[in-house]
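ARCHIVE CARD
Drawer: 12
Card no.: 0347
Subject: one protein chain, sequence and derived structure
Cross-reference: see card 0346
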Amino acid sequence: MPDTVREGGCACGALRYRVSGEPIFVNNCHCSQCQKQTGSTSVVNMFYEAEYLTQLSGDTSRHVVKAGSGGDHVIVRCAQCGTAMWSHYPRLGEFAAGIRAGTLDDPASVTPDAAIYVSERMPWVTLPEGIPAFETQYSPAELLPPERFERLKRLAAKAAGR
């Protein structure tokens, strides 16, 4: 893993975390579920192997909602203020964390690899140039660099063998 270290926290400052290395992938999701869950037009998630995420302080609460697949999507929030910090999605389970990029101390330090579910975006939302946009999902094998795709495959294999 690269030596990159990023830190972030919740709105009230009680919960702090550190994540090491570069994300496997970063998605800007515009699906209606993300809109409803965040109260916003989209969410930017950075996906990491869960072992690279370290909670430094604070307590969390876990909230389960249904993902588009029908499986359990676990949203981990600051127990004090309720800020959504990261999620565990059905396909990768607890082996991966989809960390909300907006909780980083320097959220501009990451750029989405793709905008997804743009077919569901608000009609007035414009998409940035230079970031691939997909009506729904994309094929990670076609978009991600080989080393990042290999990390994703390892996580998927772990999750399949739960």
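Annotation on reverse: The domain at 5-160 is CATH 3.90.1590.10 (glutathione-dependent formaldehyde- activating enzyme (gfa)). The chain has a mean pLDDT of 93.
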